[in-house]
Input
Amino acid sequence: MSNWLLPESLADILPAEARRIEELRRGLLDLYRTYGFELVAPPLVEYLESLLSGTGADLNLRTCKLIDQITGRTLGVRADITPQVSRIDAHLLNREGVTRLCYCGTVLHARPAGLLSDRELLQIGAEIFGHAGVEADIEIIELALASVKRAGVRQARLDLNHPGVLRSIINADPALADFADDINDLLASKDVPGLTELGARIPQVKPDSIQALKQLASLYGSTEVIARARAVLPALPALYAALDDLDTLISALPDNEFSVDLADMGSGYGYHSGVVFSIYAQGWHDALVRGGRYDGVGRAFGRSRPATGFSLDLRKLSAGLPAPPVSKAIRAPWGTDAALVKVLRELRAAGEIVVQMLPGQPHALDEFTVDRELVQDGGTWKVRAIN
Output
């Protein structure tokens, strides 16, 4: 095998694409700052038990492990930055009241999440700690929508769910407690026959509980799903409270396209504690943004805090956007003449791209188109158009 081949699902990012990803990173972090979010930068590698504290089994499977040559302890290469930010809020900052934190960094997955997924992501996101009310969820979703809009995504669709709906049905029937993961998987695939078969295998299960789960499997579509859920699901206080939260969010975010899928929690059933959302758009095969409420994750670090946030992969976001425009540049001759150096410095200080041509070498540029040149005219250096 050639020594320059990369491992599966890893890729180099070439000049024009790398520049756009970097511009997205800067633009989004600047956007988050205008909302009052403070930037943090946790390490790429941590002790495994810290990296996985408060998270589900899914993250453990996605985390690459290695042995620390200094301590002999197991390290993990982060597969998600959110738990690290929770640790910073709970253990290092230890503030009272609301804290808004944002981040951007590389994460690595042991296996790709899907057939078209990469293993290396550039994850950017924002989290609000310290407020349990739906107001924080509204702010986070507004910021997530503003993020994709800033990137140039049009006609984004917001998909909502709430684990409190399924959790209330399971909590109302003790016989279902040990089968929560199986139920979640069957609901995610809308497998009604599988739910019927599972009900037949669970001793002492209430028939009404299995019927409610089968109804839940059909509750996806437009926002009218919430009204339909109130009509067909059991009248449980926690279930109605979850539906109320979804209604509040939809009312607070007018002029957005919504869908609701009360059956599909994905891998977040045991992790999320409140409203869960994803943002989809034409041109991307999967969700662009994922987020939601995850109260209590900081408990593993000695301080349980309400928390809600979102994250997205800048590399995936950039890959679905139209090709970036090529930047215009000025060609300049090589030289150390003081007058030439002064003009070069002034042009670059003004934001111009100036490429000096090294002696005897042709130049190939992917990111720039050279439409002007710096020439000496009557003892003065001037910029002129290239025909």
User: Anything to note?
Assistant: The domain at 157-280 is CATH 3.30.930.10 (BirA Bifunctional Protein; domain 2). The chain is about 35% helix and 25% strand. The mean pLDDT is 91. Residues 10 and 119 are 6 Å apart (CA to CA).
